[in-house]
Amino acid sequence: MCLLVVLSRVIPGFPLIVAANRDEWLDRPAEAMTVLRPADPRTIGGRDALAGGTWLAVNQDGVVAGLTNRPNPAGRDPGKRSRGELPLALTAHPSVESSVDAFVTSHRPSDYNAAWLLTGDRTTLAAIDMTDGPVPVATELAPGVHVLENRAYGVPSVKVDRVRQMLAGVDRVPPGEIADCLWTVLADHEVPPDPPSADVEPERPAAVNAACVHAEGYGTRWSGVVMVADDPGVPPTFTYADGSPCTAARQEATPLWS
Which domain holds residue 91? Predict the structure, then answer.
């Protein structure tokens, strides 16, 4: 996953809305959508067929967890556990408060390839750093628009700045138009340049500064929008695209709740 956009307690009637792009090698095998956990609580999302786990998990109680990877020029360390386990662990509980409490005591960053996560529900949003240190670092976030890419939350990023620019005034968008607004963001191809003074990773191509990435053999190959309504008796709506959001048809994952 390379882009997570979260509207937490911003849109009336929908206290949590998550939009996400997964950027990956195009030939890496994956299931675009499946049941990740059949019960307690039932959880759905895509599945990585190579390392296992998922990049974005959503449970029936309205808990959503997604991750972005810290780039590693040497590639993924196969001796470590898959980062794809982490969203599953965070959606194994009925609330973010209980899931984060359990997560920070049972997971060690050194066991996994480095990642950052956002996890939210109807009342809480948290950022989790799983890169360095003996324990995960969890930070509760205030209501608002939050954006995470393949850099630590809050680190300067032209990609994040571009997404925030596109979402200016989103709190005034009618709830029925929010999903389309977010799909427009996910499909955006503008490649904002890094400022000359930026500390840019040499292996990071300019193409990944776009929300919708198109590069040689690599790019945005899955997208999704999750909307969690006020009513806890209503499972989240989950629309996804198996492919680039600028061309792939949108599909409904909601039937997987039953």
Answer: 3-257
